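> forwarded from #structure-qc
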């Protein structure tokens, strides 16, 4: 089947764009977040395309005062990937690699029109290829970009000017578990294991991108740290990236966090002061009802509220979070910079350096 995308010179195989290889778990996704200068208000969004499942879905969430208010939308893709609107939620590429627009038509008392403008060129992260035995669970490319944000969000009739907000957007595509779970589990059975930290941080003159994927022994299978000088656009990879965490007792959540890396001139440290926690299932990640790629009919739009004071911090379904952080960047020579961003956390299974031995045992 031909689609609108076939009129663009982007083909990489002798087939129409609608055909995405042979893996039913292929996906293509936009992700956005942004926060006010004081971290009191936060917005997040996502839009995903699942060519083999013929589904497109999207979510938008406004967080303030310990409450997340989400809108989840899903529709039949119809094999048209360029129609990036799902019910009231849409994503527009205004200028490729530079400007994107996220919109929400009035839904559940919320509407938004937000422009994300890159503060630098996107960063291509190292390819994520993760296997359990013979099965490939992830094979993903992702580009990430810290953004200047403008526009408005209206919540229960109150308009919020987002000028001066900062945030991050990413684009990822490839293979990862989506939609309904595999009916036949891996043989022989083994406990899942996934240790993930991701910290995109905005500073006045710099952008930082830091992530850690560790195996159960604590060996990093995908780690990266990049510091961008915004004045020159220069990207510098930090050597030996590692994270030093102190967990909150009785949880799998960081209570304190310091990130480390190396420049030729010496050590770089980023100390994070952790604030409010955003539940990632508020935009579909691991949601029991609105998970990415699930078939929900030709068009389905629903809302949901999450009250943070009612969240069970020990429940596995609440383990994937982005913690809003203020950050101090310490460069060699004693230079310090203040910024804001998030520390995303997802810890499943064993991680020897953290003392985790089982699937969801707690600190």
């Amino acid at each position: 089947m031909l689609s609108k995308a076939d009129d663009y010179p982007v083909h990489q195989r002798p087939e129409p764009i609608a055909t995405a290889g042979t893996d039913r778990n292929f996906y293509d996704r936009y992700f956005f977040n942004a926060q006010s200068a004081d971290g009191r208000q936060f917005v997040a969004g996502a839009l995903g395309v699942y060519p083999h499942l013929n589904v497109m879905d999207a979510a938008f969430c406004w967080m303030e005062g310990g409450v997340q208010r989400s809108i989840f939308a899903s529709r039949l893709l119809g094999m048209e990937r360029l129609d990036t609107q799902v019910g009231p939620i849409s994503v527009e590429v205004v200028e490729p690699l530079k400007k994107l627009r996220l919109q929400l038509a009035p839904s559940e008392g919320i509407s938004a029109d937000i422009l994300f403008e890159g503060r630098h060129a996107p960063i291509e992260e190292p390819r994520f290829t993760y296997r359990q035995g013979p099965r490939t669970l992830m094979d993903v490319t992702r580009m990430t970009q810290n953004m200047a944000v403008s526009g408005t969000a209206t919540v229960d009739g109150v308009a919020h000017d987002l000028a001066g907000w900062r945030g991050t957007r990413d684009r990822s595509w490839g293979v990862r578990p989506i939609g309904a779970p595999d009916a036949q589990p891996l043989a022989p059975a083994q406990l899942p294991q996934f240790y993930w930290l991701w910290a995109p941080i905005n500073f006045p003159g710099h952008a930082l991108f830091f992530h850690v994927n560790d195996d159960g022994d604590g060996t990093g299978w995908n780690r990266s740290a990049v510091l961008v000088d915004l004045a020159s656009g220069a990207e510098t990879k930090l050597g030996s990236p590692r994270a030093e965490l102190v967990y909150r007792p009785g949880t799998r959540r960081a209570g304190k966090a310091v990130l480390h890396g190396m420049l030729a001139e010496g050590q770089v440290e980023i100390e994070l002061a952790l604030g409010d926690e955003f539940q990632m299932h508020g935009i579909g990640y691991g949601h029991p009802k609105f998970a990415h790629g699930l078939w929900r009919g030709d068009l389905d739009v629903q809302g949901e509220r999450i009250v943070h004071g009612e969240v069970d911090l020990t429940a596995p379904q609440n383990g994937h979070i982005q913690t809003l952080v203020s950050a101090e960047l310490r460069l060699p020579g004693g230079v310090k910079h203040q910024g804001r961003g998030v520390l995303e956390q997802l810890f499943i299974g064993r991680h020897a350096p953290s003392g985790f031995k089982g699937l969801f045992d707690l600190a």
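QC bot note: DSSP finds no helices and 23 strands in the chain. The chain has a mean pLDDT of 96.
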